[in-house]
Design a protein that fits this description.
Elements lengths: L6 H11 L35 H14 L2 E5 L2 H12 L5 E5 L4 H11 L5 E5 L14 E5 L11 H11 L2 E5 L17 E5 L13 E5 L2 H14 L5 H11 L2 H19 L5 E5 L9 H7 L6 E6 L2 H10 L4 E2 L9 E4 L11 E5 L5 H13 L3
Parallel strand pairs: 2-3, 2-4, 4-5, 5-6, 10-11
Antiparallel strand pairs: 1-7, 6-7, 8-9, 9-12, 11-12
Helix pairs in contact: 1-2, 2-7, 3-4, 3-6, 8-11
This protein binds pyridoxal-5'-phosphate.
Length: 369
């Protein structure tokens, strides 16, 4: 392999590079809580809350994609929590998007506000110019779930640095293949790998990636003490998904763009949000910092009833929450209390052939009128 070999090729051949004759080519699942430990501990594996070879193999693979040290967790929220618990102390202020994944704000309100941590919020669209004075941590989520607003990561990082704050980027909606926040100045990335990274809607997992050695140590220590390590079977499923990430994401992104173009201008649709659309207000900044625009498209129908009828009437849609899986799915986001219109649909493109998906979506929209 050369310096120019892509991260995904390096990920695919990472294990085989280190194999001895007779070893399994596929990644073994180390289903054990304890490791053979005669005599004194010497730094090798001894108890699986501290580390497991299957988990470490997946961390190395994600590390190739991120170009950073990686710690894996049993969910995206556990990954986010690990950074908050590692960084935030009483008296600190954290700035988070008002339009990002709602459980981040719930976590800060429930666990950190009572400990004296102040949460400030700001819409993703305004994050690059937000007041960061006095902040210890600035969290961004771009594109933000579910409204798909985008912020300029490099600008946020530059301003946060000047204010003395760390930047944590939730890169779940894009993945490291479509967007590289660490290269743009973010200190740490968090992802829900439950979504496109694992990709088959069959496992909960997440990761933290950073090039900051102190932060990496703090997050890893928190995981060991809190006991939040991902299990070896789940780590294996994540590994299995990562091997096809690029192929799946290519189809999902193409499907998302095709659906966005198909619903744009449809008489049943009043607004479409997709940073890949040329007329989207975030297209220019997204084009600068993304290599693909992700699998989510959001659009607004006239009412809750129309959104429910569309989702029920589209034969290639699972009515489900989440995104990044191989089956297209959709949901009405107001049902979770997101500040969006009642008829707002978050559509998550899967890997169905594009023509089939566009035909199914168009047919279900046509049936509304
Ligand atoms: C952007 C974003 N970040 C984090 C999470 C949390 O991830 P998990 O459900 O794996 O805990 C989600 C879940 O939907 C999400 O959409």
């Amino acid at each position: 392999m050369t310096d120019k070999t892509s991260a995904i090729s390096r990920l695919l051949h990472h294990r085989s590079q280190g194999l001895s004759k007779g070893e399994a080519v596929s990644l073994p699942i180390h289903a054990t809580s304890v490791f053979h430990l005669p005599g004194e501990p010497d730094g090798s594996h001894f108890y699986a809350r501290n580390g497991n070879p299957t988990v470490e193999a997946v961390e190395a693979e994600i590390g190739i994609l991120e170009g950073a040290d990686v710690v894996c967790f049993p969910s995206g929220m556990a990954a986010i929590a690990s950074v908050f618990y590692s960084v935030l102390r009483p008296g600190d202020t954290v700035l988070v998007p008002s339009d990002g994944y709602y459980n981040v704000r719930n976590l800060l309100n429930a666990q950190f506000a009572p400990m004296g941590v102040t949460m400030r919020t700001c819409p993703t669209a305004d994050m690059a110019e937000a007041d960061m004075t006095g902040c210890r941590l600035v969290q961004i989520e771009t594109p933000a779930n579910p409204g798909l607003a985008v912020c300029d990561i490099a600008r946020v990082a530059e301003r946060a640095k000047a204010a003395g704050a760390l930047v944590m980027a939730d890169n779940t909606t894009a993945t490291p293949l479509c967007q590289r926040p660490l290269d743009l100045g973010a200190d740490v990335c968090v992802l829900s790998d439950t979504k496109a990274m694992a990709g088959h809607s069959d496992v909960m997992c997440g990761h933290v990636a950073t090039r900051n050695a102190d932060l990496f140590d703090a997050v890893k220590t928190w995981r060991r003490l809190a006991g939040a390590i991902v299990g070896p079977f789940d780590a294996y499923l994540l590994h299995r998904g990562l091997e096809t990430l690029e192929v799946r994401l290519g189809r999902m992104n193409a499907n998302a763009l095709a659906v966005a173009e198909a619903v744009l201008g449809h008489k049943a649709v009043s607004a479409v949000h997709y940073p890949g659309l040329g007329n989207d207000p975030f297209h220019q900044v997204a084009k600068r910092q993304m290599n693909g625009f992700g699998p989510i498209v959001s659009f607004t129908l006239a009412s809750q009833a129309n959104a429910d009828r569309f989702i029920a009437g589209c034969p290639l849609l699972s009515p489900a929450t989440s995104f990044g899986g191989v089956h297209s799915s959709a949901e009405r986001r107001a049902r979770w209390g997101d500040e969006v219109p009642d008829g707002f649909v978050r559509f998550a493109a899967g890997i169905e052939p594009t023509g089939d998906l566009v035909a199914a979506v168009t047919q279900a929209l046509d049936a509304l009128s």
